[in-house]
From TrEMBL:
GO terms for molecular function: hydrolase activity, acting on carbon-nitrogen (but not peptide) bonds, in linear amides. SUPFAM superfamilies: LmbE-like. The lineage of its organism: Bacteria, Pseudomonadati, Pseudomonadota, Gammaproteobacteria, Enterobacterales. It comes from the Bacteria. This is PIG-L domain-containing protein. It comes from Pantoea conspicua. PANTHER family: BLR3841 PROTEIN, N-ACETYLGLUCOSAMINYL-PHOSPHATIDYLINOSITOL DE-N-ACETYLASE-RELATED. Pfam families: PIG-L. InterPro entries: GlcNAc_PI_deacetylase-related, LmbE-like_dom_sf.
Amino acid sequence: MEKMSKKSALVVSAHSADFVWRAGGAIALHASQGYEVHVVCLSYGERGESARLWRSGNMTEAKVKQSRQEEAEAAARILGASIAFLDLGDYPLRADKETLFRLADIFRQVQPHFVLTHSVNDPYNYDHPLAAHLTQEARIIAQAEGYRPGETIIGAPPVYSFEPHQPEQCNWKPDVLLDISAVWDKKYAAIQCMAGQEHLWEYYTRVALQRGVQAKRNVGINSSTVISHAEGYQSLLPRVTEDLS
C-alpha cells in the first residue's frame, strides 16, 4: 500500500463485517467528500461471526474465510474504501508485538486525519475491546520518533469508537451524531453484502433510523435540515477547537 497523500481515514474492524454495520455511513460519506478511507479487518470473523455459513453444511474454516473476505471486499467497494485483512483469528482474537508493528506501519502509510474503531468495553465480545486497544496503542507507536527512525510519523488524529451492539452494557455514550442520510442507500447496499449475518440487516437499519431521530432532535426540530439516518460515535480523546458553536 502506497502512502496516501489526500485527506484520509483509517477504520480498524475486529471482524470482517463490523465496519459495515457500525461505520458504513461514515466511510461512504467521507469517501464522497474525497477522503481516501482504508479499512483494516483484524479477522474474518470465521468462528463467532459466521453462524449461517457453518449451518449450511459441508463447510471448512478456509471456505468461511473466503466467503467473509468476498463479502467484505464487495461492501468496501460500494462504500468507496480500500480494505486489508490481517487474519488474526477470532473467538479469540489475539495479537503480538509484531501485529502491533504491522498496524503501526499502516497508520504511517495512511496518515489518517481521523480513526474509527470499537468501544473500549464490550462484555459480550472480547475481540472488540482488544481491537480498540490495539488501535490506540498502534497510534501511539506510529507517533514515536524512535519507531523506524527516518519515516514520517503521524500527527494526532482523533479516535472515535463506533456503536457497539448493546451500548448500555458497554458504557458507550455517543457524543457525535453523524448525519448519513445522503449515503444511507450505499450503506444499506453494503449491509446486504453481508449474507453470512442477514439477521442483522434489519437491526442496524433500526439503529440508523433511531440515531437519525436523535440527530434531528439535536439540531432542533424546527431546523430545515432533513435527517433520516445517522450513526453515533464516542470520542476517545479530547478535541481541540477554537470555536464551540
